[in-house]
Design a protein that fits this description.
Strand content: 25-35%
Number of strands: 18
CATH topology of the largest domain: BirA Bifunctional Protein, domain 2
Subcellular location: Cytoplasm
CATH superfamily of the largest domain: Bira Bifunctional Protein, Domain 2
Distance between the termini: 38 Å
Number of domains: 2
Oligomer: single chain
Main location: cytoplasm
Largest sheet: 8 strands, mixed
Protein name: Lysine--tRNA ligase
Helix content: 25-40%
GO cellular component, one term: cytosol
Cofactor: Mg(2+)
Strand order of the largest sheet: 6-10-11-18-17-16-15-14
Length: 505
């Protein structure tokens, strides 16, 4: 007999699952033995499907109670509920988007042999094709009164009890079960697709061109991060999985693609936590004749358009029910001014590193780094980051921590860079780009010294990129934003929920 879906109950033991698998494998063998041709059996190659469960629910949404339409449909779905009662069997079929419909298999419609086979061979989790009349039951439930049926794919492992909440471990490691069981998991996939489409639509509307740049690189660059290293047999050389596409996208700007963007994967061989994943989706964009102000405007529009695409409003509702307003004009604050206010003294790019170290010690911040800018950034995160509630652009960063950024047009030893904070985490960053090849070489040399001193995140000197700059890159603005984190900002979920198949140990 098929298993019935019951209320919350203990999950079966490994031994019970093994026993159920053996029973289901016997049913698989029997289905194959009953097949009339090689295309049938437990896994037929094609079925006479004429519609889908969502389409039937949409087309017959207003059907009254206890109505027979006379309309015959052929559809398929996964069995998530089954109840066998003598001459009439009930099953709930679920489509990939979570839509459900009831299938009624009766002795009068399918005959004694077919009804008995249904009872003996159909289990929870099986994909089943049914053909029959669209009706509503006496309780008003939209149903298919089955005239014929066929196994579409036999499940040899039982589903978890769908009334029980899946553990986080199961949700992450077995996302396919999560997608079957949980509406939020399915919604996350659809929301991510809406966000990516919205980003591309926004860029297309303002004349940006999407390109693809290498993921395997002979030299990692474009960010301060530790790379993954691999080896190419064809070239007999070590290669790096890219940590950022920046240096290639800037080559495109040099070549005349003046508004360019890419949405693709980055890889950083670093820690993993609630906001970081070693593999993540990244958006980067560059605009000739823009600067960090124009890129902040663009980033705000990209995020607000994405919120509209997902929620229909700039006010998004997170998974826990919290409403968060992404609308309006977002705050722009100075890193140095806000830090000065927080510590009660003026902090500038000229503040001696000894004083910054003392402030870090007073705050209990453990850091040992040769760059004063690292202390400024760590102090700012300690004192201010957690207090940001609204979306906020944090403007004007230390020069020594931003080797690819243009110096500030009016503040010494500061660069024109912002970080955008939403929900207490950094979502995006933007620059006025450094396009002077002489200054860029000097910055790379300083980074190379740090790398030689053992800093695994320091950038290497990239001669090919410098050569491209020497042909002339127009003044430009650039921005980068994590797609996974954008989903976090819109949905309120953690990063492992926004990535369909996250990397886990």
């Amino acid at each position: 007999m098929a298993e019935n879906l019951t209320d919350a109950a203990p999950e079966p033991t490994a031994e019970e699952i093994s026993e159920q698998k053996q029973v289901r494998l016997q049913k698989r063998d029997r289905l194959n033995a009953l097949a009339t041709d090689a295309a049938g059996g437990a896994y037929p190659v094609r079925l006479p499907i004429t519609t889908t469960i969502p389409a039937v629910r949409r087309d017959y949404a207003d059907l009254e109670i206890d109505v027979a339409t006379g309309d015959i449909v052929g559809l398929a779905g996964r069995v998530v509920f089954s109840r066998n009662t003598g001459k009439l069997c009930f099953a709930t079929l679920q489509s990939g988007d979570g839509s459900r419909i009831q299938a009624m298999v009766s002795l009068a419609e399918v005959g004694e042999e077919s009804l008995q086979l249904w009872k003996e061979l159909v289990d929870l989790g099986d994909h089943v094709f049914v053909e029959g009349e669209v009706i509503t039951s006496r309780r008003g439930e939209l149903s298919v009164l089955v005239k014929s049926w066929q196994i579409a794919a036999k499940a040899v492992l039982p589903l978890p009890n769908l009334h029980n909440e899946l553990s986080e471990e199961t949700r992450v490691r077995s996302r396919y079960l999560d997608l079957i069981a949980r509406e939020q998991a399915r919604r996350n996939v659809l929301d991510r697709a809406k966000v990516n489409k919205s980003l591309r639509d926004t860029f297309d509307g303002i004349g940006f061109v999407e390109v693809e740049t290498p993921m395997l690189q002979v030299m990692h660059g474009g960010a301060s991060a530790r790379p993954f290293v691999t080896h190419s047999n064809a070239f007999d050389t070590d290669l790096y999985l890219r940590i950022a596409p920046e240096l290639y996208l800037k080559r495109a700007v040099v070549g005349g693609i003046e508004r360019v963007f890419e949405i693709n994967r980055n890889f950083r061989n670093e820690g993993a936590d609630s906001t970081h994943s070693p593999e993540f989706a990244m958006l980067e964009a560059y605009e000739a004749y823009g600067d960090y102000h124009t890129m902040a405007d663009l980033t705000q529009k990209l995020i607000q358009d994405a919120a509209l695409a997902v929620s229909g409003s700039h006010v998004v509702t997170w998974a826990d029910g919290t409403e968060y307003d992404l609308g309006g004009e977002w705050d722009r604050i100075s890193m140095y001014d806000s830090l000065s206010e927080a510590v009660g003294e003026t902090i500038t790019a000229e503040t001696p590193i000894e004083r910054l170290k003392a402030l870090a010690d007073d705050a209990g911040i453990e850091i040992d780094h040769p760059l004063p800018g690292k202390y400024v950034e760590e102090l700012w995160e300690h004192h201010i980051k957690s207090h940001l509630v609204r979306p906020t652009f944090v403007m004007d960063f230390p020069l020594d921590t931003s080797p690819l950024v243009r110096w500030h047009r009016s503040i010494p030893s500061v660069v024109e860079k912002w970080d955008l904070y939403i929900r207490g985490f950094e979502l995006a960053t933007g620059y006025s780009e450094l396009v002077d090849p002489v200054v860029q070489r000097d910055r790379f040399v300083e980074q190379a010294k740090l790398a030689a001193g053992g800093d695994p995140e320091a950038m290497r000197l990239d001669e090919e990129f410098l050569r491209a700059l020497e042909f002339g890159m127009p003044p430009s603005g650039g921005m980068g934003m994590g797609i996974d984190r954008l989903l976090m900002a819109i949905t309120g979920l953690g990063i492992r929920e926004t990535i369909l198949f996250p990397l886990v140990k």
